[in-house]
């Protein structure tokens, strides 16, 4: 899976990595920034998704589609789609461009809108990557966990660099008897939960 990334996908990944690095240096306003995961987190979520049980793959927070490209590798390997949610029109436009240039339009379903409007109806979730605004993490967690298949995996980004903001959700997951959970020190810190 990681050895067979197409040249167009590699080129789009490199381009988005350059934009993201530039955003972090030049003070680009928060809402305009890509705010992407680093490549090692991309590999981590792709490997986890590839080993998830049968069911839907979803992502909450697409931005320009960088993390979605990593998840599309796992979706392609598994013969399913990755459904990704993005609320901002400008980011939707960038993500559409990403998926077209990387040649993954048949593997990715991009839903433009507020993920919270859709999650209650999203059944049989086998893998979820949560990477949106910190104030909706807890609501997303509560909506996703009941809809996960047994053995399903939820990964939430920023569990270390935004630990204070995410503490209510992290504490909830560590005490939640519906899941086994821990914080993995990779990238910005990934909360990993497995549905029991
Ligand atoms: C940290 S960025 C995602 C970065 C992306 N996962 C990556 O690594 O390439 C968070 C994104 O979530 C989007 N977002 C925030 N709240 C949302 C919501 N309620 N529904 C869907 N998208 C949302 C933001 O507009 C932003 O583009």
Describe what this molecule looks like in 3D.
With 196 residues, the protein is of the alpha/beta class. The chain has a single domain (7-195), classed as Vaccinia Virus protein VP39 (Rossmann fold, 3-Layer(aba) Sandwich), CATH 3.40.50. 41% of the residues lie in helices and 21% in strands. It has six helices and seven strands, in the order H-H-E-H-E-H-E-E-H-E-H-E-E. It has helices at residues 7-26, 39-50, 66-78, 89-102, 137-144, 163-175; strands at 56-60, 82-86, 108-112, 125-130, 148-156, 179-184, 190-195. The chain has a seven-stranded mixed β-sheet, sandwiched between helices. Helix 5 links the parallel strand 4 and strand 5. Helix 2 runs parallel beside helix 3. The longest helix is centred in the N-terminal third of the chain and has 20 residues, at 7-26. The protein is globular and about 40 Å long. The chain starts with 6 loop residues before the first helix and ends with a strand. The structure holds S-adenosylmethionine. S-adenosylmethionine (SAM) is lined by residues 35-37, 60-61, 63, 66-67, 85-88, 91, 114-116, 131-133, 136.
């Amino acid at each position: 899976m990681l050895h067979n990334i197409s040249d167009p996908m590699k080129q789009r990944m490199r381009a988005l990595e350059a934009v993201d690095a530039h955003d972090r240096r030049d003070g680009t306003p928060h809402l305009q920034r890509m705010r992407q995961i680093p490549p090692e987190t991309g590999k981590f979520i792709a490997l986890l998704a590839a080993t998830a049980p049968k069911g839907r793959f979803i992502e909450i927070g697409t931005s320009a589609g960088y993390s979605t490209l990593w998840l599309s590798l796992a979706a392609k390997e598994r013969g399913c789609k990755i459904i990704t949610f993005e609320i901002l029109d400008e980011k939707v436009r960038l993500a559409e461009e990403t998926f077209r240039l990387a040649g993954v339009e048949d593997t990715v379903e991009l839903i433009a809108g507020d993920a919270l409007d859709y999650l209650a109806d999203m059944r049989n979730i086998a893998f979820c990557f949560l990477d949106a605004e910190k104030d909706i993490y807890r609501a997303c967690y509560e909506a996703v966990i009941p809809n996960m298949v047994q053995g399903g995996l939820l990964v939430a980004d920023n569990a270390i660099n935004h630990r204070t903001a995410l503490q209510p959700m992290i504490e909830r997951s560590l005490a939640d008897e519906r899941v086994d959970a821990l914080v993995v020190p990779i990238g910005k810190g990934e909360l990993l939960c497995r549905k029991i």
